[in-house]
Specification:
Blueprint (H helix, E strand, L loop, with lengths): L4 E6 L2 H13 L5 E5 L5 E3 L2 E3 L1 H11 L16 H8 L10 H15 L4 H11 L5 E4 L6 E6 L2 E4 H7 L8 E5 L8 H8 L3 E6 L4 H9 L4 H7 L4 E4 L2 E2 L2 E2 L4 H7 L6 H8 L5 E5 L12 E5 L6 H20 L2
Parallel strand pairs: 1-2, 1-9, 2-5, 9-10, 10-13, 13-14
Antiparallel strand pairs: 3-4, 6-7, 6-8, 11-12
């Protein structure tokens, strides 16, 4: 009997693009997206989950294509008013986006889990695939720069990734547990593939893998693990991936990302621009166009990734 479930590990913008492609080529009940929550933080008294929200808006078709984050057709009266009052307006929350954060915060304070809140919001927005936080326990990514430790959103948004990164830490990760449905899915014996989306390996994927038991559960699932490179020709498609790799003393390349994931990977999808530099990486390499500019690009890359995983499974 054919294994059905595809588990995708994802951060924000780049991961959401591939997640959308997967959602369009798979039946809704065959896709489970595991969202990084290391980026989550509290701001203006609200619980913010940036990667969950980017995935949610993208899968619902209401994302802002110009920014890659937030909702389309957004207005900014709230932020304008906060700024005029001398409040913190460095993290931009649009008026429509604000509604989600207020409702999430209300429900969390009533005792609902982040998984319960996320699942219900996805249902109300018409999303068929499951989107789940990596854990219902609190994990927070922090960055050590030349000025000491800073919270991730301070580094990423307020300081626009300018500080040099010397080290990363995931606060409270040792106390976190994989989200229950994710753990059950990986144990089910029904996992067709685990896809590592083209997200920043340090700040989007590694927080997921750092949860005790998560990496082992992925390996024990018996499914092929295939990653899509977030690097093309030595440059990140979006975000600070290449900059961070150089600052951490790593090779800023598709091969460098594969080396970072190590023996987790069975397969690796890289761009044509990197075909000559990945012969030694270890996992089985597939060369494809990985820059996703259009919806067709997203669907095509999703099919390429699934085909690579299926080919690996057939070899076992």
């Amino acid at each position: 009997m054919r294994k059905r479930l595809v588990v995708a590990l994802s951060g924000g913008v780049g991961g959401a693009k591939l997640a959308l492609g997967l959602s369009r080529v798979l039946p809704a009940d065959e896709l489970l997206v595991v969202a990084n929550t290391g980026d989550d933080f509290e701001h203006l008294g609200l619980s913010i989950s940036p990667d969950i929200d980017t995935l949610t808006y993208t899968l619902a078709g209401i994302d802002n294509p110009a920014t890659g984050w937030g909702r389309r057709d957004e207005t900014w009266s709230f932020m304008d008013s906060i700024g005029a009052l001398g409040g913190e307006d460095w993290f931009r929350l649009g008026d429509r986006d604000l509604a989600l954060h207020v409702e999430r915060t209300r429900r969390l304070r009533l005792g609902q889990t982040l998984s319960e809140v996320t699942s219900d919001i996805c249902r109300r927005l018409g999303i068929g695939a499951r989107v789940l936080p990596m854990s219902d326990d609190r994990v927070r990514t922090r960055v050590r720069s030349e000025r000491g430790w800073i919270d991730f959103q301070d580094y990423f948004v307020r300081q626009q990734c300018r500080p040099v990164v010397h080290e990363l830490a995931f606060d409270d990760v040792a106390l976190a547990r994989p989200q229950a449905e994710i753990a059950a899915a990986l144990r089910s014996g029904d996992v067709r593939a685990v896809i590592v989306c083209p997200s920043n390996p340090f700040i989007s994927v590694e927080p997921i893998l750092a949860i005790p038991g998560m990496r082992d559960a992925i390996k024990a699932s018996g499914a092929p693990v295939v990653a899509v490179s977030p690097i093309i020709g030595g440059q990140a498609v979006k975000g600070p991936t290449a900059k961070m790799m150089r600052e951490l003393g790593l090779e800023a390349s598709a091969a460098g990302v594969a080396a970072r994931y190590g023996d987790l990977l069975d397969g690796y999808i890289v761009d044509h621009a990197d075909a000559d530099g990945v012969g030694h990486v270890g996992p089985q390499v597939t060369i494809a166009k990985i820059l996703m500019k259009t919806l067709d690009d997203r669907e095509t890359l999703a099919r390429v990734t699934l085909d690579a995983a299926d080919a690996l499974a057939s070899q076992r």
